[in-house]
Design goal:
Blueprint lengths: L25 E3 L5 H4 L2 H6 L5 E5 H31 L11 H6 L4 E4 L4 E4 L4 E6 L6 E6 L10 E9 L5 E10 L2 E9 L5 E9 L5 E8 L9
Parallel strand pairs: 1-2, 2-3
Antiparallel strand pairs: 4-5, 5-6, 7-8, 8-9, 9-10, 10-11
Length: 222
């Protein structure tokens, strides 16, 4: 879900994706803001051949914003290369180009608000609602028979403070009818403060949970 570009302080390397893009079947874009869609052209550039699903209005806005982002990437690379050549450095490549951004639409499939979008032979449905700029995403396990491989859905959300330091990481994984939620919070210096895991059954009931807190030196607290 989403494939955003970090903006501001360089806490993360935007050029590195922690997975093989060719292994991804679907990307669900919740809204067009660059911190949610900005690395989609990079995903395509590095071998993604699946389907990008979003609302029609988000797709229209995303096309404009990604080309604008690509223009910035090209301009930044040009400026760095002019400066670097004077220092004898090798040229750098932009994260992606306008041509890469324009290629994204080849993989986009849109739906309207309040429309069910069926994935994987009706095993999953993608349902969206909300305002033009964003949407909520819900996954439903439907009763239609599905003979394919087991499905694993993973979504992450990262929160940063005003200085760009990570403060909270949430990861949701749905597999074998179990929803697992992992939450990791951090101190102001980025060191881990607490880790918690909760597992839910199909009725939304917690079936198991763990929580570990750490002091500022990284030692587990009793």
């Amino acid at each position: 879900m989403d494939c955003g570009l970090q903006q501001g302080r360089d806490e993360l390397d935007n050029s590195e994706l922690p997975f093989n893009p060719a292994d991804i079947d679907f990307v669900l874009i919740t809204h067009a803001h660059i911190d949610h869609s900005g690395r989609v052209p990079l995903l395509v550039k590095q071998g993604f051949h699946g389907t990008i699903i979003t609302t029609r209005l988000t797709a229209e806005l995303m096309e404009i914003m990604l080309q604008d982002s690509a223009h910035i990437q090209e301009s930044d690379a040009m400026w760095l290369n002019r400066k670097g050549r004077r220092a004898g450095k090798e040229d750098v490549e932009p994260l992606y180009t306008i041509a890469d951004a324009m290629k994204v639409k080849e993989y986009v499939q849109t739906c309207e608000y309040d429309e069910n979008f069926v994935l994987l032979s009706e095993k999953w449905q993608y349902y969206v609602d909300g305002i033009v700029a964003a949407c909520q995403t819900h996954f439903y396990d439907v009763t239609t028979a599905y003979d394919g491989p087991p499905v694993r859905v993973r979504a992450t959300n990262e929160t940063y403070d005003a200085d760009g330091n990570p403060t909270e990481l949430r990861e949701y994984t749905y597999q074998n009818n179990i929803l697992q939620k992992k939450v990791q919070t951090s101190y102001q210096d980025g060191k881990i403060q607490k880790k918690s895991t909760e597992n839910y059954n199909g009725n939304g009931e917690v079936i198991s949970s763990t929580e570990v807190s750490f002091d500022e030196n990284g030692n587990p607290l009793p």
